[in-house]
Each structure stands twice: as C-alpha cells, then as structure tokens.
Amino acid sequence: MDRRRDGFGTAAWRAALALAVLALLGLAAARAQPTHIQPRLVAESAAPAPGGSTTIALTMAPEEGWHGYWSNGGDAGFGLMVEWNAPDGVTVGAFNYPVPDALILFGMMNHVYEHPYALLADVRVERDVAPGTDLTLSGIANWLACTDKVCVPERAVISVKLKAGDGAVPTRERERFDAWRARLPQPLDRAGNWERAGGKIRFGVPLPQGTSLDAPHLFVATQNLVDYAAPQAFSRSGDWIIIETAAKGDASGAVDGLLKLSDGRGLNVRFEPAAVRRTGEPIRTASDAVDARLFLAALGGAILGGLILNLMPCVFPILSLKALSLARSGGDARTAKVEALAYTAGAVMTALLLGAALLALRAAGEQVGWAFQLQHPVSVLLLLMLALAITLNLLGAYELPSFGGGQTLAEKGGAAGGFWTGALAAFVATPCSGPLLGAALGATLVLPAWAALPIFGGLGLGLALPFLAVGFVPPIRNRLPRPGPWMSRLRKWMALPMGLTALGLAWLLWRQAGAAGGWVALGAVGWTSLVLCSVGARQRGKSSGWLLLFLLAGLIGSTLIDARLLTGQTREAPAPGQSGTRFSPEALADARATGKPVFVYFTADWCLSCKANEAGAINREAVQKAFKKKGVITLVGDWTNGDPVITRTLGEHGRNSVPLYLWYAPGAETPLILPQILTPGTLAGLVDS
C-alpha cells in the first residue's frame, strides 16, 4: 500500500516537474523575442488584502510608427490575450480597454492605439488566503503589432510581485491609476436600441442634448455585424443619438459598443434589439473632415500615376493620336498651346466624368471599381466601333469632320481635335493601374465625394502633362520634327496599334459574351467598315454600292440586336488557365489552411498591364516550376465582367482596379502586396525566401 502510494506520488511529482520545465521553456522563448510594443504589468497595491481586490494595469508602449488594437481590432487586427498563471486564491478579471482611435489603411478600418496606453483589470483575493502569502501573478501575453505596411504577432511574459497584506495603496500609484481610469469609457446607465434596415444597421443611443460630440464614432464590439470602414451618419433626435452605417452581417440579441465622444472620452453602450427613432438633425463627424495629408498624398500620387501611365502598355494604342497631334502643333507656339490646353481639358473632364459615375454607382450601393466602363459588353462594343473608326481614318479610308469646322480629329488638330483626343486617351488609358495610381485611387474609397473627385481629375492632368510640356515649354517643342510628308507615312503606320486595339476589343467582347459576343464583334467590324468606307467613297466622288450596303447592314444589324448583349446577361467569365484556380474567399481560406504559400492575382481581359505581367512573369515556365516545387497555391480573380466579391476584396487592400497581386507566406496574418509590374525574379525571390 505505502509503496504504491509512494510510486503514485513520485509519478505525479515527475509529471508536475516536466510540465514546469515546459512552462519555463515557453516563458524563456517568449522573453527571447523582441517586441515592437513594450508591455509592463503593474499593480495599484502590491499588498492586496484577503477578501478584497486591487487593480492591475498592463501598460503598452508602441515604438514610433507602430500601433496596437482594441478588443475588436476591426477589419485587420485583434486585441490582447493573456494566458494567466495565477496562484491559488487569486482571480483575474477581464481587461478594460481605453477609448481607441479609428484608423483606415488600404480601405480597411482598424481600431487602434498609436500611443502608449494601459489596460486595466481587477484582481480578487479570496478571504481564506493567509496574510504574507506570495501572490506573484504572471502570464504570457499575445497581441498584434502593426505599422501601415506590416503586422507582427508578438508575445511576452508579464508578471507583477504581490503579497497578501493590508491593501494599502501608495499615493503615487493611486494618482497614476486614476489617470488611466479616466481614459476608460464609462458605462451608460441605460440601454440603447439597434435594428437592421435592409443593407443598413441603425443604432439609437439615449444621450442628453448637452453632451459634447465633437468627433463621435461608434466602435462595435460584436464581431462581423457592421462594415467597419463604411461612413457613419450621426443625427440627433431629442435626447437620442441616431447612428446609421452599412451592415456586414447579422446578429440576434444584445450588441455591445463603445461610443467615442470628445477629448478621448467614451461610453460603453449595450444595444437591445428594438425599433430605432427616425433620423434627426445631422451631426458633423470626424469622417466629414478630410485628412489634408491623405488628400495631398492621393492627389500627388494620381498626378504622378497618370504621368507614368503614358508609359504603360495599356496606353500604347492611343499614342498614335498623340504623336500626330504633337507633330502638328510643333511648328506654331499659339497652336501648340491651344491644342495642349484642349487635350488637357478633354483628359481631365473624361477622368472627372468617369470618377463621378463611379462615386454615384457606389453611393447607390453598387460594388464597382475603376474601369467599370469596360465591364459591360455594350461599352466594349461602342469602344470597338470607335477604335475601328479611328483606324480607318488613319489609313485614309475616309475623312472625319470634327467640331472645329471641317478639321479632322487627329490630323488637323485644333482645339476640338485636341479635346477629343485627350478624352479618348483618358477613356482608354485609365482602366489599367500603374505605379502610385492604385494607392491614389484607393484613397477615393475613404474620402468624401467632393474630395475624391479632384483625385480623378489629377489622374487626367498627369496623363496630359507631356502634352502640356510640349505646348508651353519652347525648348521641348523645338526638338520635335517639323511637319512634312513624313506625317502621312507616320499616320498610316500608327493605324497599326489602333487596329490591334480594335482587334483586342473584339476578343474582349467574345470573352465577355461568348459566341454571341463574337458574332456581334464580327458584325460591328463589318458594319462599321462598310459604312465608313462608303462615306469615304462618297467623299472622293465615287460610287459607294448602296444596295450592297443596305443588304449587308440588314444582315449585320440583326446580329447586333442580341438581348443577352444589350441587357448585360453575358456568360460567366471563363475559367482561369492552368496557372491557377478561381478566386473566392472560401478558396483563399482553404488554401491558407494548408500551410502552403498562396499567390493571388486579380486580372481582367481588358487590362493590358495584367496580360503583360501574366505573359512576362506569372506564366513563365521557370516561375511555374518554382511554384510547383514549393507547393505554391495560385488563385486567380477574373474581374473582366465585374464581380462584387472581387471589387470588395480590391477595396479591402486599398485598390479599386486591377492588377493586384497578393502573396500569403505560410502562417502570415496579412498578405504582402506585390508591385504592379512583375518580373520572374520578383516571384522566384518570394518562393526562395
């Protein structure tokens, strides 16, 4: 009997020793990791009385440029978690967080602290604990530390020495803890109401009219109920504050939230499901004010991005028109200035109109992004006919009078020719994002409409800057070749890229609408060519074969009237090629769960930058072999016909157009956003890292 008891006791003691050694190894590993947010655990009273309690504070000190998170981190973060090693008779309560700040990065809302902060919790000591007992408290804390570019999961050992005593609190500690308590939100004495109304969530907060609300914001603690990054509309109806924002999910029962008031103060509110009052007098919020730095950075990025866009593959087809206009305006200073200003006006106005349409569609609840005009087959059809008309004009098949009194659109130049050339340049060039442009246009997701529109105008201005330089800087203009017979030959040669553009648009129409789109594209080419060549023949005083024209026009016209095309009821986007599988949030989650690297790229058939990257980098044999060797999972998001899920995903990463390339390393919480111009070396380097 005694021997068996001794054996059992020895085994238990050994097991306990092994667990203690493992715990110490874990603590040592936690200590060895450097952190970007320095934690420190302190107690208000180092001698809590048995049967009483004391308050502990976990102070968090972020390095410059780093931030930590509230209990609900928002779209991309999470709060702090502690695995406590509490002695017998000691109970640690949940941490209370101070009022956070709202930080939007890449279109995602984060609930953060960008300055030192303290989390407070109550520690209770049971009555039967003997005075003088060592109550040292320790644990392993886990949190997320982030900058505006990278996030790092961090952990550290935290501990504070406690001993059961009389509960005395030194004056210095009381003052320090009182200062931290002042930053905690106060509980509201009455419950609020919440309800879902279609795609919106409405909250009602009972708050007297005298309460100061300089910069209110509602932080919803309940996960996945609201769209965190969506604007919040505040209004006052008597002694109630009404808050409306976009819904993301649904919930049943009570919802917890934190209403930020003024000067860093806040209220903890519990919302019960019930009808909410109608909106009242609007209240100005922090989201109504524009961050000047964000606006200026986005405007500068849009101008530089538009300038760089002149070198992108998607702009090359319209360089033919620009080249002819530049050559024609090079001889006369006044003509060059007039045409440069007209070209700029056309580019800026088109970019503004496209931006305004985009903002209006978003305000109406549509999930659309930049280049939405190429996501509908009818728009592609019209652009195809325009590109073909310009090709035939450059080849001399006909002459197109412009609004400038008989001058041709590109050859004769002038104000009207410059304007429409600039408009066409902006319309065709803007679908593909270039360096700086993606982030700049992404800022329009969070700026109010009146501040977002100048960003779109800046894109058009950047696109027109080279033409402005030629028009207003004589040394540049004087270096251009003088007009001469070479222009006629150049005009015909420049019909080649424009013809290739028309061919690409016909292919895009087939990709968007299947066989029906292919027949419509063929019909559009035939009908447009016949009509314009007939016009050219009449201009040259020759017979145009009207009977043949009417017969063919009737046949082709019947092809053009296709309900599936005109109503946008096209076939689904074709399945991606062998280099990847179709993207979806579920597919991404499954891929990341395998523990393998994941490469996600978003593309569209009308994006020449995307296709250049795919041909020159992604689909290269060496890259595909490296991916296969390392087990990289590739997901492809096809945005050719538009897709609300992809549009939302682009917005979550601060983009509203393609291309977008994401690399998920094994175990990484957030992806690495790759450059918009890829090389085989870039992708191979990711695999080898």
TrEMBL record:
Pfam families: DsbD_N, Thioredoxin_7. PROSITE patterns: THIOREDOXIN_2. Residues 569-689 form the Thioredoxin domain. GO terms for molecular function: protein-disulfide reductase activity. CDD domains: DsbDgamma (cd02953). This is Thiol:disulfide interchange protein. The chain crosses the membrane at residues 294-319, 340-360, 380-398, 419-443, 449-473, 493-510, 516-535, 547-566. SUPFAM superfamilies: Thioredoxin-like. Keywords: Membrane, Transmembrane, Transmembrane helix. InterPro entries: DsbD_gamma, DsbDN, Thioredoxin-like_sf, Thioredoxin_domain. The lineage of its organism: Bacteria, Pseudomonadati, Pseudomonadota, Alphaproteobacteria, Sphingomonadales. The keyword Membrane applies. GO terms for biological process: cell redox homeostasis.
